[in-house]
Amino acid sequence: MARESGETLATVNRAVTMLEMLGTSGPLNLSQIADRMEIGKATASRMLQTLVARDWVVRSADRTYRLGPGVLGLAMWKAPQQHLIGDLRPILDALHDTTGETIHLTRLDGRYVVYVEQIVSQLPVRSAAVIGARSPAHCVSPGLAQLSHLPAEQLAWFLSTPLKRYTPASTTNPEELRRKLETVRERGYAVNLGGYRPDVGGVGAAVVDHNSQLVAGISVCAPVYRLATMDLDSLGVLVSDAASEASRLLDKAASPHG
Amino acid sequence: MARESGETLATVNRAVTMLEMLGTSGPLNLSQIADRMEIGKATASRMLQTLVARDWVVRSADRTYRLGPGVLGLAMWKAPQQHLIGDLRPILDALHDTTGETIHLTRLDGRYVVYVEQIVSQLPVRSAAVIGARSPAHCVSPGLAQLSHLPAEQLAWFLSTPLKRYTPASTTNPEELRRKLETVRERGYAVNLGGYRPDVGGVGAAVVDHNSQLVAGISVCAPVYRLATMDLDSLGVLVSDAASEASRLLDKAASPHG
DNA sequence: GAAAATGTTCCGTAAATCGGAAAAAGTAGT
DNA sequence: ACTACTTTTTCCGATTTACGGAACATTTTC
After folding, report:
1. CB–CB contact B20 A74 (8 Å)
2. Can you give the residue ranges of the IclR-ED domain (chains A, B) (predicted)?
3. CA nearest A16 in B: which residue?
4. What's the CATH number where A153 sits?
5. Is B67–A47 a contact, with Cβ atoms under 8 angstroms apart?
6. For testing contact with chain A, the best of B67, B114, B212 (most A CBs within 10 A)
7. Per-residue pLDDT tens for A49-96?
8. How far apart are CA B145 and CA B137, in angstroms?
9. Is residue B53 situated within a structural domain?
10. pLDDT tens digits, B78-104
11. Which of A79, A110, B192, B218 is the most exposed place for a label (fewest CB within 10 A)?
C-alpha cells in the first residue's frame, strides 16, 4: 500500500462502517455483517467482540447484534449537547461582549437547571457556576424562563410538590410562582434577585424549537449589587432577543435534514 | 504481545476511548486528547483525521474537536427506524399472508429508496433485497409511490437532474415521470414492471403522517412473469389500503407523545 | 442424531499502525 | 511585519497489529 499523507486508519474506518450499518440495518448476525462489509468472518467476529466488550454493541440471544448503550448514549445525549453548545456559542459570545457579565446556557432537568456552558465575566467581582452543576429551577432566572414554557401538565406536577426556600427572596408559594411564570411568559424574560444565593441574580430567557418545545435557557448572571444598577427591562429584551436568535439558529440547523 | 483468544482490537479500543472522551469532556484539542489517552500526537492526529473524514468528529476553528453529525445520525436512524418497523410489522405480515409475495418497507433517501425491512416470499422463484440496500426511486414501485407525495419544490429538484436508464422499461423523461406520478397520486398506488431489474416488478404505496408528510413506502415485489398474471388493480388497492392502515397506526402511536 | 449453518480460535504473514523527528502551520506579542 | 513559541501534520523505519483461511466449536434445523 502506497504511503500517502492524509490516509485514514483502515481499522477505524471498518469500525465506523460496522456501527453505521448496525444503526441503519440492525439487528444483523455475524455472517450478514461480514458479507455486507466484504470482510472475513474472523475479522468481523473480532471487531464485534471488541465493540461488545465496550458496550457499544449488544448481542442478543438470537445471535444478532445491534447498537449498544455506549454509542447510543453518545448519540442521544452527548452529541446533541455538544452541538447545542457549538451552534449557540456565537450568540452567547455576543451577549457576553454586550453585557460584560457571566453568560449561562442551561437545560431543564427535573426540578433543576443544569449548567451546560458558561462564559465568565472578566470583571473583578463576578458570578460563576460549575459546568454540570445544578440550581433549583424555581429560584434562578434560567429556570423560571424555562418553567414558563412547560406544558400545563408538567407545570402542574412541578407546582404540586413543595417549593423549597433557599433565601428570603425564594418564591415558595405555588400560586405566586404560577403568576410569576405567566408574567415571564408574556414578557419573554425572567428576573431573579437573590432567590437562590442571596448575593447572586440574573436575567434569563428560554430557547424553544419550531414546535415551541423547550430546548434550553440563556441567562446573564451577575452579583445582585450590580444588577440593581442596570435597566432590567433593557437587559431582559437583550436576553430575550438572544434566545429568539438561538431558536432561529436551531431551526435553520434542523431543517436541511427535513 | 501474547496471542490470547478473546483479545480485543487495540485500534478500535482507542477509537472508542477517544469518542467517549470527546463525549464526556469535549471540546478538546489534539494535545489534550493525546495526553489523556497517553498516545503520541501523531497517532491522535491520524485517528482524529479518520473520524473527521467520517463526520463522527468535527473540528472547530479554534482547533478543538467535538462529536460530529455522524454519531448524532446513529440516534436519528435508530430511534425512528425501530419504531417504524415495530409498529408496521403486523401490516406487512398481513400483506404477505394475503399475497404470498415479498413485502418491502422502504424510506426515501435522496434519489433512492432504502430497504428498511422485508418479508420474503416462500415461493420457489422470488424477489428479495438486502436490508440497507438502495434502488433508484424513479424505477421501482415504492420509489414512485413516495415521489408522488413529495412537496412540489422537492419534486422539481428530483426532475431537474437526469433520470438514469437501467432497463428499456425505465422512465427517463421528466415530463413523462411527472405525469406518471400524478396518476400514482390519484390512484393511490404505483406499478413497476421491470424498470430497474428487467425481471423484477412491484406494486407500492406511500405511508404519510397526519400532516401528509411522507414517512415510508410499502410494496409487494415479485418476478415480472408472476405480476403479469395478477389483477394489478386489485393488488394496488390492497397495497394502498395497507399503506393507509399504516398511516393511521402511526398517527395513533404518535399522539400519546404529543 | 446428522447435517448444515454459524461463530470462534489459531497462526503465518502481509498490512497497518506506531511514535520520534522534521516540517509545516498557527498564535501571540512587540 | 517579524519573531518566538506552540501546536499540528507529515515522513519513514521498525514493530506491532490485524488480516483471512482453515481447523475447530457451537448452535440450529430437519
Report:
1. yes
2. 63-252
3. B54
4. 3.30.450.40
5. no
6. B67
7. 999 988 899 888 788 888 887 887 777 667 767 777 777 888 888 898
8. 9
9. yes
10. 444 555 666 687 888 889 888 888 899
11. A110
Task: Give A-chain residues touching B131 at CB under 8 angstroms.
Answer: 25, 28
Beta sheet of A190-193, edge-to-edge order = A134-136, A112-119, A102-109, A214-223, A200-208, A190-193
Question: CA B62, C1' C28: Å apart?
Answer: 14
- The whole-angstrom distance between B155's CA and the closest CA on chain A is 14
Q: A83 and A56 in one domain?
A: no
Within 10 A of A121 (CB to CB), how many other CB atoms are there? 21
Predicted complex ipTM: 0.69
Same domain, B208 and B151: yes
The crossing angle, in degrees rounded to 10, of helices B30-37 and B10-25 is 120
Residue B48 sits in a domain of what CATH number? 1.10.10.10
Tell me: do B54 and B115 sit in the same domain: no
- The answer to whether B102 touches B127, Cβ cutoff 8 Å, is yes
A116 and A164 co-located in one domain: yes
Using a CB-CB cut-off of 8 Å, the residues of chain A touching B78 are 23, 67, 72, 75
Q: Residue B196 gets which letter from DSSP?
A: S
Task: Burial-class residue B72 by CB neighbours within 10 Å (0-12, 13-18, 19+).
Answer: buried
CA of B32 to C1' of C22 (A): 22
Same domain, B27 and B131: no
Residue B3 CA to nucleotide C13 C1', Å?
Answer: 15
The structural domain count of chain A equals: 2
In a domain, A227, yes or no: yes
Record the cell numbers describing residue B8, joined without a space.
Answer: 480485543
Cis peptide before B124 (omega within 30 of 0): no
Q: Which nucleotide is nearest to B5 (CA to C1')?
A: C9
